[in-house]
Amino acid sequence: MKKARDYKPSTVKKLHTLSSNQCAAPHCNNKLIAKDSETVISKICHIEAASPAGPRFNKEMSDDDRRHFNNLILLCDECHCIIDNKDNESKYPVELLKEWKRNHENKQLYSRIDEKPSSIKIAINALADLDLDEQNNCNDGSYDAFRIDDKISYNAIKRNKILIDEYKVFFTKINALYNELESQGSIKKEKLLRNIKHLYLKIKGKYVGNAPNAIEIIQINADNIIEDMEDYLIELFNKDPEPNKDDISFAVSVVMVDGFMRCKILEEPPKK
User: Fold this and answer.
1) Is-contact 196 226, C-beta < 8 A?
2) Quick one: pLDDT at residue 42?
3) Domain encompassing residue 57
4) Would you report the helix, strand and coil content of the chain in percent, each value rounded to 5?
5) Distance between alpha carbon 207 and the CA centroid of its chain, in Å?
6) Same domain as 170, residue 36
7) Coil/strand/helix, residue 53
8) Does residue 124 sit in the same domain as residue 242?
9) What is the pTM of this model?
10) Same domain for 145 and 69?
11) Do 6 and 88 fall within a single domain?
C-alpha cells in the first residue's frame, strides 16, 4: 500500500493549484499555507483509504487509483483529522467527499480561467514552441469533437474520464483562442497539435512497441498514457524560469483534454 501514498508531482501541483489556499471542506475557512506565507500546512486526504485500516477503504481499487488525483482531497489539518477518524466514517461517506472536492475545485477552476484567461494562451504558446525532436512530422488529420463518449469507451479510459468530462467544456474557449491566433497569421494551433500528437505516439510506443495487438495494450494502459503525457509536460514547465509556470502547469490539463477531443491523444474509434 506504500505506492498509494507515493503521489505524482503533477498530482500534488494540481491539488494545490485548484485549492487556492483554501480547505476543500465546506464552511471551513482555514488556509493551507501558514501565516509565514511559505510553510505548507495542508493535508492530502484519501477519499477512499490508502490502506485497509483507513476509512472508506475500497479493496477493488488499485494503488494507482488510490493515489490518483480523483481520489485525493486537500484539507486543513483539523478537517483531515475529523474526516479520517474511523468513528466519523458514516458521517463522511465517499460520495459526500467527492461532492466537496468537485464543488471546491470546479469553483477554483472556473475562477482561474475567468481571472487569468491568458493562462491557456501561455500554455498554447509553450506547447507549440516545444522542440520534441526533428522527426515531428505527424499527420494531423480530421477530428470529430462530438464523439467523446465513444472515444472514452473505445480506449477504456477509467481514472481520467472525470478529467475529460469536466475540462471538455473549455473546447469553445480554446477554439476561440486558436481562431484569434490564426487571424494574426500564427501557426501555433498547427504546431501545438502536431507536438501533442507526436508526444502521444512517443509515449504510446513505450507501451505498445511492435506488438500486433496494439489497441488491446492501449486499452489496458490508456490512463497511464494520459498521465505520462501530463507528467512529461509539467516537468518541462517546472524547469522553465518563466514566472507564470504555475499558470502554464494548470492549463496543461485543459489543453490536453482539447487534444484528446481533436483525436491527437489515444485512438479514434472506428466510424459507425
Assistant:
1) no
2) 94
3) 2-107
4) 60, 5, 35
5) 20
6) no
7) coil
8) yes
9) 0.80
10) no
11) yes
Residue 34 domain-assigned? yes
- So what's the pLDDT on residue 136? 46
Amino acid, res. 56: R
By the 8 A CB rule, do 218 and 93 touch? no
Same domain, 94 and 149: no
57 φ/ψ sector (left φ>0, alpha ψ -120 to 50, else beta): beta
Total count of domains within the chain: 2
CA distance 28 to 21: 12
Q: How confident is the model at residue 78 (pLDDT cuts 50, 70, 90)?
A: very high
Mean pLDDT of 10-24: 89
Whole-angstrom distance, CA of residue 262 vs CA of residue 41 = 40
- Give the C-alpha distances (Å, rounded to integers) separating 115 from 107, 118, 126, 136: 12, 9, 20, 34
Asked whether residue 78 falls in the same domain as residue 180, the answer is no
Residue with cell 486537500: 74
**Of 152, 154, 146, 233, residue with least CA distance to 196:** 233
Q: What is the rounded distance in angstroms from the CA atom of residue 132 to the CA atom of residue 194?
A: 10
Question: Are residues 253 and 139 located together in one domain of the fold?
Answer: yes
Spatial distance between the Cα atoms of 123 and 245, rounded to a whole number of angstroms: 9
Average pLDDT over residues 150-157: 94
User: What is d(CA 198, CA 191) in angstroms, rounded to the nearest whole number?
Assistant: 10
Q: What would the 3-class secondary structure string for 92-146 be?
A: CCHHHHHHHHHHHHHHHHHHHHHHCCHHHHHHHHHHHCCCCCCCCCCCCCCCCCC
Q: What is the pLDDT of residues 89-116, one digit of tens each?
A: 999 999 999 999 999 988 888 777 776 6
Q: How far apart are CA 228 and CA 1, in angstroms?
A: 21
